[in-house]
Design brief:
By secondary structure, the protein is α/β, with parallel strands linked by helices. About 35% of the residues lie in helices and about 20% in strands. The protein folds into 2 domains: about 110 residues, Arc Repressor Mutant, subunit A (Orthogonal Bundle), CATH 1.10.10; about 300 residues, tm_1862 like domain (pyruvate-formate lyase- activating enzyme, Alpha-Beta Horseshoe), CATH 3.80.30.20. Bound molecules: S-adenosylmethionine and iron/sulfur cluster.
């Protein structure tokens, strides 16, 4: 990375959303309730492709860097209770549909879906298959904690049709693992990958983090070398978002062991270069994929998407989220389940859904959403052309140039006519460019993670 780019990125290291949705979740309100959701679900038709997301809000132990919605439990009983309610939620939700849309993507996230016992996982998938029409080429993905993977679990995944696995790895070094409360020896990751391949679950992603305690450029390069040596189809390289005011357990991470903004940028750049050298292609801000991977192909076809899980090839216009805190996205708008397990169970006891909040999309929201998603996916956009192609009134976007001018002056963004191009090694700036099109953002108000 050029010294001028590094300097400019540090100067613009603002707190802005990650734009996994637009409008972003902090702008949801209680104006959307269970009645609204029932009416939205009833309008989905047979021809609509549907995506399903299942949130498992439990882990055996909490990793101190974790920003996900989850709870630690050594005992399995609470997980078993959750499974029975999750199945109930599948039934209740399916009963609100008047058609049978075709499910093209299923994703198990969390928390740790791999905490589920094999019989519980099979049971959930049988319930899904009993209530939804699953497309024959449906992608069924699950996030896995390699430390809890056993052969009976992988056999259950294969039998249930799982065809993509994403492994939480983060870092291979003992000092960092100790400082984040996640001891995960290398052989555990190797064995997990071998088991998955033995059961022909061969679409494998690995999650790595930079910006963790005790990490430096050398160790980051080593993480990439080891991870790429396993030849996963995809490697995600996320920057550790340190938000101790939101997640109390992050206070257990000694701040003096964390790399500063400059070190974080250099770590990302070192990892990026190492991944490109290994033949991976960068997609968006944080994904690196093998050139033949479906995500690389979707990118080239202009079909890359972004949803609550990040970059995806999932083009379904409707996504239903299950489990506490899960967010759904329907053509009319977004809604989020209550994050409170007890409230979630109580509503299901009454055959109802506890919807905490949501947002009905206006035409302006939809226009800005498509624009923001495009920028997050492609790091460039011809605004005038995009508006013309999508029937958006360009003037209604307001004075976005006021926000972009400082980025242009510092060489992070280039303007060619009405085309905005973000510098190749400064993809992080996409979030700031998107903020220029965000009609809800209040400068300095929201506390998000920093760009770098
Ligand atoms: C739900 S977890 C993955 C599955 C499983 N629970 C595990 O940890 O192995 C999803 C991913 O989110 C990322 N993640 C979690 N907390 C984060 C944070 N504070 N900042 C950035 N990425 C984070 C990690 O890379 C993690 O692998
Ligand atoms: S990173 Fe994964 S295993 Fe660790 S606490 Fe978060 S969800 Fe659980």
């Amino acid at each position: 990375m050029e010294a001028t780019t590094l300097k400019a990125l540090l100067k613009h290291n603002n707190q802005v959303p990650r734009y996994t949705s637009y409008p972003t979740a902090p702008h949801f309100s209680d104006a959307v309730d269970s009645e609204t959701v029932s009416s939205w679900l009833s309008t989905l038709d047979d021809g609509t492709n549907l995506s399903l997301y299942f949130h498992v809000p439990f882990c055996k132990k909490i990793c101190w860097y974790c920003g996900c919605h989850t709870k630690a439990t050594e005992k399995y009983d609470p997980v078993a209770t959750f499974v029975s309610y999750l199945k109930k939620e599948i039934e209740v939700t399916a009963s609100k549909l008047q058609a049978a849309p075709s499910v093209t993507h299923i994703h198990f996230g969390g928390g740790s879906p791999s905490y589920l016992q094999p019989d519980d996982f099979r049971d959930i998938m049988s319930t899904v298959r009993a209530h939804f029409k699953i497309a024959h080429n449906c992608e069924i993905a699950i996030e896995m904690d390699p430390r809890e993977i056993t052969e009976p679990k992988v056999a259950a995944y294969a039998q249930a049709g799982v065809n993509r696995a994403s492994l939480g790895v983060q870092d291979f070094h003992r000092d960092t693992q100790k400082a984040i409360n996640r001891i995960q020896p290398l052989h555990v990751v190797f064995e997990c990958v071998s088991l998955l391949r033995a059961y022909e679950i061969s679409d494998i992603s690995i999650d790595l983090l930079y910006g963790l305690p005790h990490q430096n450029i050398e160790k980051i390069r080593e993480n990439v070398r080891i991870a790429a040596g396993l030849s996963p189809n995809r490697i995600s390289l996320f920057g550790y978002a340190h938000v101790p005011w939101m997640k109390k357990h992050m206070q257990l991470i000694a701040e003096e062991t964390l790399p500063d903004g400059k070190q974080r940028l250099l770590q990302f750049e070192a990892a990026r270069e190492a991944l490109l050298e290994k033949g991976y292609v960068q997609i968006g801000l944080d994904h690196f994929v093998q050139p033949q991977d479906t995500m690389a192909r979707a990118y080239l076809k202009g079909e890359l998407q972004r949803n609550f899980q990040g970059y995806t090839t999932d083009k379904a216009p409707a996504l239903i989220g299950f489990g506490p805190s899960a967010i759904s996205s329907l053509p009319q708008g977004y809604y989020q389940n209550t994050p409170n397990n007890r409230d979630y169970y109580r509503a299901l006891d009454d055959n109802d859904l506890d919807i905490a909040r949501g947002l009905e999309l206006s035409d302006d929201d939809k226009a800005r959403r498509s624009l923001i998603e495009h920028i997050m996916c492609y790091q460039r956009i011809d605004v005038a052309r995009f508006c013309e192609e999508h029937g958006i009134n360009h003037a209604s976007l307001g004075d976005y140039m006021a926000e972009l001018t400082p980025l242009i002056a510092d060489g992070l963004v280039e303007m060619r006519g009405s085309e905005i191009r973000i510098k190749t090694d400064a993809a992080q700036v996409s979030r700031i460019v998107c903020a220029a099109f965000d009609a809800y953002i209040q400068p300095q108000a929201a506390q998000h993670s920093q760009v770098a």
